Amino acid sequence: MGTAVSGLDSLRYRNPVLRTPTRLLAVSTLLGPEDLTTDTMTHEADRLRSVAQQINRQPAEYDTITSAEMIGWHHLDASARQRWKELRATQPEFSTPFFSLEFIDAVHAARGDVNVILMLERNRLLGMLPIHQVGRTAVPAGRFFNDAHNVVMAPDTELDWLWMLDRCGLRSFDFHALVGQTADLSSDWVDGSTQSFSASLGSDSIAFLSSLEREHKTIRKQDQKTRKMERELGDVRLEMDCRDPELLAQAIEWKRNQYRRTNILDLFTPDWTREMARLLHAKPNDQPIANCTMRGMLSVLRAGDEVVAMHYGMIEAGLLHYWFPVYNPAFSIYSPGTALFKAIVRESTALGIQCIDMGYGEQPYKRKQTDTITTVSHGNVCGSSLHRTFRRAKQSIINTLKRAPLKNQLKSVLRTIQPNAGIGKIK
Where do the BioF2-like acetyltransferase domain residues begin and end (predicted)? Predict the structure, then answer.
């Protein structure tokens, strides 16, 4: 549990000049031992009080976090949940479903170990960060299923990350997809950035699709394959919002098979991941998609009697997060995954979907299906340079292996020897 900072700490965090202990104006650092007489001590104390008074009289440009504490997610009361919604609305980057209360609720229900760091000024809640605690390290709630995270706070709020972590008994915060305000984030803590992709459909998804067809041959030629699939398999039709839990289980199983075929870590290995997906999908769909609260949505493309492709994602207020697309490899000749994407886009405007967010990761298909590129940051907030150096060295080795000429063969060997290599990032 955190405690309120002292008056001196409060002054330090409110004044940029006095924000770190090494720059804090103190009599002992301004004067030599021979100068520390009673008169000089009194004079300097008066001067510092005068500085403090001037700072207190200045109009506040920033909200000031003066205390921090960590509680279990299930202890977040109704007023705090309402405050979350208010703070979330202050930054457009927080519109993704990963910042919704419903996403964190589902993660906590599936795992039972989500905590939330509360950041306050006196009794006023200024920021919240949902996490899992691994030793003394904090990681984003949802682990690597979480494609966008940050402290939920207004953009004009000042935050001393190391102070906040220390108040909660934590040493560091690992992040892999930080979005939104990062002004208070030291460049030493950021290891790099990754591109993130989205399709801004606006109010005319058909026009958006036409634009993609002009720019990308793969998208333009897909309709020929879809017509061939229809001739050979039967009528092609999309069920945008399928509520069948058995088909969701089938989609997850297809995805797991795909991971194994391509020598990628099976993200659905831990039980909690499948339970989280099930809980989100089970939420009621009694609201129009254009203004619905966040829930899971399964889209199914059929050809005749066959299910040829599915997508499981999250929908909230007209924004669709494109999370887990998968297709039946028996029908790969028809490129059913692309057929599914085009069918979803065609139906989007009629259903109130204005944006399809594909998240971070630079897979080639995302470039062909989107028109907007942003970036997310990855790194580690930690006061220990040795800890950061070790992490960067480890990541450098991984990046080198990814660029190796025989990387596919190396992946195959690695997965054969250690099929769950990397599982720690989703446990």
Answer: 221-367
Q: Flag residues of the chain having pLDDT under 70.
A: 1-61, 395, 397-404, 406-413, 415
Q: Which residue has the tokens 């997850």?
A: 252
Closest listed residue to residue 157, CA positions, set 176, 182, 177: 182
Q: Break the chain into its structural domains and give their ranges.
A: 7-57, 65-191+378-425, 202-353
Strands 172-178 and 137-140: parallel
State the burial class of residue 25 (Cβ atoms within 10 Å of its Cβ: 0-12, 13-18, 19+): middle
d(CA 45, CA 26): 9
Retrieve residue 209's tokens. Answer: 């699709």
Going by C-alpha positions, the residue among 2, 244, 242 that lies closest to residue 116 is: 2
The whole-chain average pLDDT of the chain stands at: 86
- At residue 244, the 3 state secondary structure works out as coil
Cβ(339)–Cβ(301) below 8 Å: yes
| DSSP H or E segment with residue 237 | strand 236-242
CA atoms of 247 and 278, how far apart (whole Å): 11
202-353 maps to CATH 2.40.10: no
Where do runs of H (alpha helix) occur along 304-384?
336-351, 364-369
Give the integer Cα–Cα distance in Å for 380 and 175.
6
CA 247, 250, 254: angle at the middle one, nearest 5? 140
